[in-house]
Design brief:
The chain has 207 residues and is of the alpha/beta class. It contains seven helices and eight strands, in the order H-E-E-H-E-H-E-H-E-H-E-H-E-H-E. Strands 1-4-3-2-5-6-8-7 form an eight-stranded mixed sheet, sandwiched between helices. Strand 3, helix 3 and strand 4 form a beta-alpha-beta unit. 33% of the residues are buried.
Length: 207
């Protein structure tokens, strides 16, 4: 009986939220105990950045999105063990989740090391696109930011072309994570002498 109680406790999804039943804007802020600025980590992976960022910024709320339910469950257990109440997790594809965010409800988006889809015939699978910029623009509050990072040089140039074509955004100084916030991918790539390329853009305050 004791073993069963421990097992249930360890695998209880405290911060993992169900995918909204209706695919229309959803009040994610209502899932948090405090009405604080909302930051969204797209493709949060193993959660090293998300957990460190949320722990260091208790005055903000954080939504982590990832397609791997197993990874999210592991993040959930770590967040619960460390007492982080400002994290919520959603299992799903980013381009399905972004339309669910309410207009002007997000202060910051993070997109680190997305799949570069290096072959030209696969470029249409790349997440940074006019559609991505449309969806994030709608969800961002005026002056809100998007932080992008990739180790793939050609994909970085592709990203820059996309964002520089969009007059609704302006480039700002790149976001630099602390040592604790660096993702597992960044640590691996740095060990291979592959420094990341970073770009940050800000939504115009006039929109």
């Amino acid at each position: 009986m004791v073993r069963e109680r421990v097992k249930n406790r360890d695998f209880h999804d405290v911060n993992l939220i169900p995918f909204p039943a209706e695919e229309k804007p959803f009040n994610f802020q209502g899932l948090f105990s405090l009405p604080q600025p909302l930051e969204v980590d797209i493709g949060c992976g193993r959660g090293r950045f998300l957990l460190a960022r949320a722990g260091g910024h208790p005055g903000n709320n954080f939504l982590g999105i990832d397609r791997s339910l197993l990874r999210l469950k592991k993040i959930d257990r770590k967040a619960t063990a460390t007492g982080l109440g400002n994290i919520r997790l959603l299992n799903g594809d980013a381009l399905r989740v972004l339309p669910l965010l309410q207009e002007k409800s997000v202060s910051t988006f993070y997109l680190f090391f997305p799949d570069p889809w290096p072959k030209r015939r696969h470029h249409h699978f790349r997440i940074v696109s006019p559609l991505f910029l449309d969806l994030t623009f709608r969800a961002l509050s005026p002056g809100g930011t998007i932080h992008l990072c990739t180790d793939h040089g050609e994909y970085f140039e592709f990203m820059l072309k996309q964002v520089r074509r969009d007059s609704r955004f302006q480039e700002v100084a790149p976001f630099l994570p602390t040592e604790e916030e660096k993702t597992d991918f960044e640590l691996i790539f740095r060990a291979q002498n592959r420094p990341p390329n970073r770009c940050s853009i800000r939504k115009s305050v006039s929109h």
